[in-house]
Specification:
single chain; mainly alpha
């Protein structure tokens, strides 16, 4: 399987797992009946959409391999954070993870892509 396909598969795993955790936190699918629920859902999956789109910016196989590793770690940590928040230490403020974790993921993704593009340009 090509590295791009692996990254896209990981991004899909991140999207599915995030929406599943949101559904568990909301106890049913009615959270998608409101505009706010749809916006929160889109915000939560934004890092994974960026993850899939970033493969187009990384042209070299080495940069794509590193991006695959960064993506895998980001998704694994996100799943662990969602699980911990919802099942290990449930709290009334736990829902804030659906707002702030995507922000942190987007920042990490942007920094990683910029760094990998810079390093890929130096390899030429």
């Amino acid at each position: 399987m090509h590295t791009t396909h692996k990254i896209q598969s990981l991004a899909l795993l991140g999207i599915v797992s995030t929406v599943a955790f949101e559904r568990i936190a909301a106890t049913d699918w009615r959270f998608l009946h409101s505009k706010a629920g749809i916006l929160i859902c889109l915000w939560s999956v934004l890092p994974y959409m960026l993850m899939a789109c970033a493969t187009a910016l990384l042209k070299t196989p080495r940069a794509q391999s590193w991006w695959l590793a960064v993506s895998a770690v980001m998704i694994m940590l996100a799943i662990m954070a969602y699980y911990h928040t919802l099942f290990v230490q449930p709290d009334a403020q736990g829902a804030l993870i659906f707002l702030f974790l995507p922000l942190v993921q987007c920042l990490i993704a942007c920094v990683a892509v910029i760094l990998l593009r810079f390093l890929a340009g130096r390899d030429r």
